[in-house]
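Long-time lurker. I teach an intro course on protein structure, and each term I like to show students one example going from raw sequence to a predicted 3D structure in token notation. This year I'd like something fresh instead of my usual example. Would anyone be willing to generate the tokens for the chain below so I can use it in lecture? Attribution to the forum is fine with me.
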Amino acid sequence: MNKTLGCGFLEPVYQEALAIEFRHQGIPFEQEKELTITFKGIELEKKYNADFVCYGKIHPV
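-- Reply from a regular --
Happy to contribute to a lecture. Here you go:
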């Protein structure tokens, strides 16, 4: 993704633009994917919402 939007927007604007770019590039993704967290073999009540999960994997941004 290039610098088309520039800087100064809040995160949701960039997330929406990135989703558009993923679609344009044919990258399979899930947005705001809720993930289960396990600690010492115990599933926590709290969940984690990943901004994007691409190709079924979590990618750092």
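Some talking points for your students: Helices lie at 11-25. The chain has one domain: 11-58.
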